[in-house]
Amino acid sequence: MARVLLINPVVREEDDPRHIPYGISQLAALADQAGHLVQILDANAWRPDDGDLKAVMQADNWDVVGVGGITTTYGYTKKIMQYAKQYSPRSLRVLGGGILTSIPQDMMRLISEVDLGVVGEGFVTFPEILEKIALDDLDFSKTLGVIYRDRTGNNCLTPPRPLIPNLDVLPYPAWDMLPMDIYLRNSALIYSEEAFSAKKRMDVNGSFGCPFICRFCFHLGLAGDLQYQDPNNPAADVVFTYNRENRVHSPKYIVQMVKHMRDKYGTDFVIFFDENLLAMNAATHNTWLPEICRLWIEAGLQPQCVRDGVPHDPEHCHGVHWGGTSHAAHANPEILRLMHGAGCSQLVYGYESFSKRVLKNVGKGSTPETNKRSLRVTMEAGIRPIPNQIMGFPDDWFDSLIDCVEAWEEMGIQVKPFFATPYPGSEWFNKYKDRILAQYDGSLDAFLTDLGDATKITAVICENFNAVELLGLRELMVARDIKRIREYQTVWEAQHGQPQFGDVRWEGAKRRLV
């Protein structure tokens, strides 16, 4: 039996804690099932000061201090590990999640306090680690899917851990170990009327994977994309490929979990964390979402306002509304109507751009036409589409930005684009790594510390615009000021001449494919 402290790092310091830490609480449930003594310090919910962090490290004789998260938590995670070494010196310090999986060799070098890293999926690996610790066995050379330090201090990457084939064997997250009151009072989200009026929103994860190859995106070992440069070389690193292994929870598992959430916590709205609901439905030959919708209604989770065809009234509506993410190319009226009938009120669409050239280079699998059509058919189905865009792609130029503004005008939508950010684990991080590090005086640590949620400029990978230009051009785009965008294009061309990017040649104002 091991004494385990799991810490959920602060995700967005500038925002309230809104999303329940699904993965780490599921690992806590697995450890608890195995008979270990587990506690979660949800730093994202509590926002403890440094004194509180130190006190927690000293509160027990922890055998394990474990942290998991995404790359944007790098700075906070580094601090946690430093405190753990100082104030809980006997504990084994374990790091997992996307922050470690994306660049395991680099992360072990950058955070020297980490003893052991979990690479890829941890559902089998983490319980094995705890079992070895309980037996006082710290030899991890035969443990699949980890990176550890040998006696000489060298990093050793063990062979990869296979993904579990059946997600339904996983327990529900250990919600009782979390400060649920904090998350529930931050339930409202400005995505739809139903989400904004939610009083007890919770989150679920119905699937892992996505069949598309978006070059700015990362999957981090949960979708069959994680490969090793050399499985037989412990000094080698990981690579991310176009391989995909898309896995879903059964509709029965999902609906039973949501029913449990409603019965225990009074849940009235659910956000699906899934990377792409409609794409995953397509991966199951269009059977997954229809069955979820059927069972949702059968279980009595269909919202009353939808059932009765009346406007939503949060004071009297019972049932569970829901929303998630989608893909424009898979939006079709039939499935959208089914989803709305079961209570789906919103879908976030990653449109990214309305430029044919940019969308082709991104690898999104969509076109300006499918983007426009998806918004129309989603609204017609009674679901609110949330348009999401990015600017600063490698081949963005004035024409692609104007394409976006003109599309917004045509569709009648307002968008404030995010900035293209080359997160570790994405194809573009590897492709532009030298350019990224050059912007931070060669320091990967500085880049990771600067990473945010793409609302601010970090490393620029656009071949034609710098950070100042991207910030200014975004303001002009939001203001629909095509006139001034074109005026700056004249200035830019006088200074730089022809734009630089892959498969398009420019001759004056005319474009033609090479």
TrEMBL record:
It comes from Candidatus Daviesbacteria bacterium GW2011_GWB1_41_5. Keywords: Iron, Iron-sulfur, Metal-binding, S-adenosyl-L-methionine. It comes from the Bacteria. GO terms for cellular component: cytosol. GO terms for molecular function: catalytic activity; cobalamin binding; iron-sulfur cluster binding; metal ion binding. It holds the Pfam family B12-binding. This is Fe-S oxidoreductase. The keyword Flavoprotein does not apply. PANTHER family: ANAEROBIC MAGNESIUM-PROTOPORPHYRIN IX MONOMETHYL ESTER CYCLASE-RELATED (PTHR43409), BLL1977 PROTEIN (PTHR43409:SF7). Its cofactor is [4Fe-4S] cluster. Residues 1-140 form the B12-binding domain.
